[in-house]
Every structure is written in C-alpha cells, then in structure tokens.
Amino acid sequence: MYVRIRPQPFPVSEPAKPARRSLALLALRHTATLFLALLCVVPAVLHAQISPAVADQFRQASEAMRTGNLEEAAKGFAAVTKASPTFAEAYLNLGLVFEEQGRHEDAITNLQKALGLKPRLRGASLFLGLAYFHLGQLQPAVAAIQKEVAAYPKDPQAWMWLGIVRLAQEKPDQAAEALDKAAVLAPDNIDILYHRGRAHLLVSNSSYRKMFEVDPHSWRVHQIMAQANAEADRHLDAITEYQAAIKLAPTQPGLHEELGSEYRNLGKTQEAEDAFIRELEIDPSNVLAKYKLGVITVEQGDGAKGKQLIDEALRQKANLLHADYNLGRAEMLLGNNAAAAQHLERATSAPGSDPDVIQQAWYQLGIVYRRLRRTEDAQKAMATFQKLKDEQAESAQKALKRYEVQQNPNLAESPSAVATPEPNP
After folding, report:
1. CB within 8 Å of 142: residues ≥ 6 apart
2. Residues 28 and 140 in one domain
3. Is 233 domain-assigned?
4. In this structure, are residues 145 and 153 in contact, taking their beta carbons and an 8 Å threshold?
5. What is the DSSP string of 278-329?
6. Taking burial as the number of CB atoms within 10 A of a residue's CB, which of 30, 95, 120, 325 is the most buried?
7. Are residues 121 and 230 in the same domain?
8. Angular region, 409: left φ>0, alpha ψ -120 to 50, beta rest
9. 167, 145 in Cβ contact below 8 A?
C-alpha cells in the first residue's frame, strides 16, 4: 500500500540496505514538490497546446492527484493523453500516478512517452529512474537519473537519488561522490546528510578492511584501532594501541600528539607533556601539539611560556577551541587583568565551547573584575557562574533520575516519585 501524495515531509526509516518501502516514502516529498511546480506552469502550457475543454480536464485530474484520489487522476490524465497525444506533461503526471499506485511498468511507459516528446522535461528522467529502481533494474535506473543530473545539475534530489541507487548497486565510492554534490546544493537536507554519511561510512569500512588484509601488523592498523578506542572513551586501550604504533613508526608525525591527548584525557599531565614535546621535536609545525602544550604550561602556572605557545599556534591556525579562555588564564598569571578580561568575555560566548569551560570563564572573569575594581561586574559574573553551576547540577540530577527509572520502572510509581501538592498557608 502506498501513501497518498501530499506536499509535506515524510519520515524515513533506514535499514542496513535501502528498503524499497522507505525509499518510496522518501520519494513522495520530491514527487509532491515537483507536482506543485508543474501546476504553476500549466496555464501557459495549456493555452499553447490544448483546447479549453482538455485544459479543464487536466486541471481536474491535477486536483484529484493533489488530494490523493489516484484512480480519478489516472482516468483524467489518460483521457488528456488520448485527446492531446503530444502533451508531454500529461504523460509525466500519468506516470507519477502509476508510480504511486505501484504500477511501475505503466509508469515507465508513460514517462518514456513524456521524454520522447520533451527529452529535457524536468523530473521525467528522475522518476523514470525511480520506477526502474523500484523494479530492481538498477542499471537502467542509473542511466535515467544520470540524464536528469546532466540536464539539471543543480537539482540536489536528482544527485541524492543517483547516490541512493549507487548504494543499492554496492558502489559506495560512486554513491559518496553523488551525495557530496547533493550536499553542496542542499547542505541542510537531513535525507541527503543521512545517505551521504552512510556512503562515506561504507567507504571507510572498506578501506579499513583492505588495510587489515594488506598488512594486519602495520602501524596504521594500530593507529586506526587507537582512534576507535578513543572515540569510544576507552582511553587506556587507545594508549596501548598508540604505543604499539609508535614502536613500529617512532618518528611518524601525529602519533605522539594523539598519544598525548589520550594521556591528558586520563589526567596524566606529565606523560601528556612529554608526548607533546616529543611530537614537536618530530614535527615543529604540529599546531595541536603546540597549543595543548601551551595549555598545560598555563595550568602549571607559567603564563609567559604558555601564552607564547598558544599565540604561536593561533598564528598557524586561528579559532582554536577555548583559545580565549586559555589566553585569559595566561594573562591573569602575568597580571594583565584588562587583557585577561577581554579574552574571558569572549570565552563566555564562544560558539561550540564546552559548558564547563563557559562556566569557569565566568568564574575567572569574576576574579579579574575584582582585581580591576569593577565590583558590580564581578558580582554579576559570579552570580552567572553560580546559576550555570546550579543548572548543571539540576540537569545532572534529572538525568540520574531518568536513568534510575529506566533501570527500575517501578521507581516511577513509588510515592517518592509522585509530586504532592503543597498545603495551603
């Protein structure tokens, strides 16, 4: 059973391989959009090609299609094609109706007729490809959709569908290429982003499998294992893998910096510092190693050296995360309170900042304001810090309660979990 065509978004569920049902739902949104676009151009086309009576019949069929009355729409468009056999748009809409009804063979016949009359009729090649796709005829589907993208290279939906069909062909490299183009044209389209991510994931998995086949003992394999462990917050395992990679490739740029980051995640400051220093001996241009070493140096109380390292890193790469906060701390150590205030003020509203860093920026800002004798600003900064701290604690408490209820649903029904009204005064 197919969902009726309506100009509204539809949810998409995605199993390991594209299910025809879910992909058909995804197509409905574009079908409805294209259909409404066709309605906008119908008047000029009708006056030029068909009689007023047939034009009225076309409008009635279009309205039936818009409201989801597919049987009535099919009869109407069929009558229009019989009365005006050179009217390409009628064949296109009849093909769309048949596609919605699951009559893919009939859809193909009519879409081909539309293209025979107007080879560049927008949407016809795309929906011809979708009809072939629903029949499992993947190569004809690719050929049809490629004609659509060639004629309309700025249509993100056409590129998306080319990528989806390539995924069905188990050609993730070509799928990723098509979906990358779709993402450039429609960067906020959730469906495109999903399929693009899936394609690149398949490409990555294929590359990693090939790595293991070629040389399972390569330092690159240990690096990939380390990165996977780091992503899963298994920092001890990540350190072990990085150490194994370094043993095989002791002067490979980047490995010591990644190892230092894992030590830092575990609070092993000295080991992290040693790793960053070694990285800079191997690769003096490693920005992250220089920046992270500067942050550690500031935390150890050396404002001058820390500021120097952070400034050098920023000259190589601007907008390093939390740079204003760390520079603010360095300036505080050096007694440059006015400069510290400027950095910390920016840190409180820096995009992408960690909430803990923003919270601490307000606290440090309160201290700096007191040193600058800006008493009222200092009080406001400390009040903001306390507010953020309380909100964080409340949020953590709620998250803990939700977790406890998930683990033991009976807690939700216990008397302590039920709110009771306060007595009237």
Report:
1. 129, 162, 165, 166, 169
2. yes
3. yes
4. no
5. HHHHH-TT-HHHHHHHHHHHHHTT-HHHHHHHHHHHHHHSSS-TTHHHHHHH
6. 95
7. no
8. alpha
9. no
Residues 31 and 144 in one domain: yes
Q: Token digits for 397? A: 């408490």
Per-residue pLDDT reduced to its tens digit, 73-107: 999 999 999 999 999 999 999 999 999 899 999 99
Tokens representing 155 are 């249509």
Amino acid symbol at 36? L
pLDDT tens for each residue of 246-298: 999 999 999 999 999 999 999 999 999 999 999 999 999 999 999 999 999 99
The last residue of a domain, from among 152, 169, 191: 152
Burial class, 218, CB count within 10 angstroms (exposed 0-12 / middle 13-18 / buried 19+): middle
pLDDT tens per residue, range 352-404: 889 999 999 999 999 999 999 999 999 999 999 999 999 988 888 887 788 77
Within 8 A by CB and 6+ apart from 63, the residues are: none
How many domains are there within the chain? 3
Does residue 311 sit in the same domain as residue 376? no
Q: Is it the case that residue 49 has pLDDT exceeding 70? A: no
285 and 349: one domain?
no
Q: Which residue carries 């099919």 as its tokens?
A: 74
Task: Tell whether 407 is covered by a domain.
Answer: no
Could you give the CA distance from residue 178 to residue 86 in angstroms, rounded to a whole number? 34
Quick one: pLDDT band at residue 38, thresholds 50, 70, 90? very low
> What are φ and ψ of residue 135, in 5° steps?
-90, 0
Q: Which residues contact 159 (CB under 8 A, 6 or more apart)?
A: 149, 178, 179, 181, 182, 185
The two tokens of residue 107 are 């859809």
Write the DSSP symbol of residue 253. T
* CATH of residue 46: 1.25.40.10
Q: Are residues 112 and 51 in the same domain?
A: yes
Q: Count of alpha carbons within 13 Å of 65, Cβ hemisphere only?
A: 32
Which of 320, 344, 364 is the endpoint of a domain? 320
Q: State the Cα–Cα distance between residues 339 and 335, nearest whole angstrom.
A: 9
**Angle at CA of residue 348, ends 345 and 353, nearest 5°:** 135
- Domain range enclosing 272: 222-320
313 shares its domain with 356: no
**365 belongs to a structural domain:** yes
Give CA–CA dist 309/306, Å, rounded.
5
Does residue 14 lie within any of the structural domains?
Answer: no
Same domain assignment for residues 130 and 252: no
